[in-house]
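Appendix B. Raw example, untouched.
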Amino acid sequence: MSSVGLALGRSTKGDSFVTSLVHALAQPLIDSGSRLITASVNDASDEDRIFEHWAEVGGISAVGLLDTRRGDPRVARLRSLGFAVVAIVDTTTPVEVPAVVVDFDASIAVLREFLAARSLPRAIYVARSDAGDATPPHRAAIAAAAAENVFEVLYVAHDTDSAIVTALSAVQSGPATLIFESDIQAAAAFTAARARGLRVPDDVAIISWSSSIVCQSTSRSITAINRRGGEIGTLLGGLALGAIAGEDPGLVSAPEPFVVVGETT
């Protein structure tokens, strides 16, 4: 049985976009009689040790990379170990392996358009401060949008309680929209805001950077950006199967993101 390996940074734990991508990636592999093998890694050295381990034990024919960078040394390293490589890349990143091309700026564009149509005077993007070596690839797009005053960026601790306290303190000076990288934090912020007597969405509007079942199951549905994680995962799975079969599937474009409008905006 041929398997596909995927190393996931520990900072992606709880990321609903990555979770939906991984679940969708597994399905076409299962349907074809293959399987997905995942490993949690702390840093680049840890990831390389996982690659070596997979090469030693065998059974894995292809490895997927979720955050491929320009000139990424992991591509050559994986090839030297005998793996086929498939990847997810930004539109600005040249790559020589089969890849799903994701326009991270497109997610910012739909968010920008959505915010522009709303009446609250401020928008604050609430980002984790502890991403470390696994900095999410969309952070460059976030920084560019902040420079253009689309929103402010507020860096918070990863734990939900301190993140919510910090984020809600930022709206004491007046109404604002809070955009959370985490759907869990977005849901917690909604509950905390109402507990403080804040009106949602009049005093504080809430948006999740990733659409998920959590956003749909709160007492008021949370507005979210659907970045098409499941569909991207399915595309990556198809590329992996093609690469294992010795084909060169080339590049495929990810579908466009869109806003799922809920009751918190």
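End of appendix B.
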